[in-house]
Amino acid sequence: MTVDRETMVGVLKNVAVPALRKQGFKGSFPSFFRETGKFVALINFQFHSSGGSFCVNLGYADPGRNNVYFQPDTEPAKLKISQTRHQVRLGATDGGDHWFHFGATSYGEIRGEPVPAEEIAARFNEMLITDAERWWKRQQDANSP
User: What is the pTM of this model?
Assistant: First the structure.
């Protein structure tokens, strides 16, 4: 069963965003941040330009802001993953790429194996803990004074 982007966003807002809030994230869809001391964890949802899939980008700002190449003095609430040097995709924290497929593109192509929106959101919630939190912890440990 495939869904459109609006439906997928609605499910993410109802299921994934509360999980992010529970982990201490602030912000609004599609970009969120969390400050732990002077370490800032960043996460955003990026939809494919032609629809049907999205990825979740992970980034961070270390205390010295060495990972932030563009405007390193940006306040945490306004930091974007695109400002950082080192970033990964959720589901591919050891390298590579990962996209969540939920429907057809604007030109009718189905990429990957579409998964029901609720399953994608539940999988995101699991991966937030199993993949994202571990990745941020490794970055925080590697970049602490």
Answer: 0.95
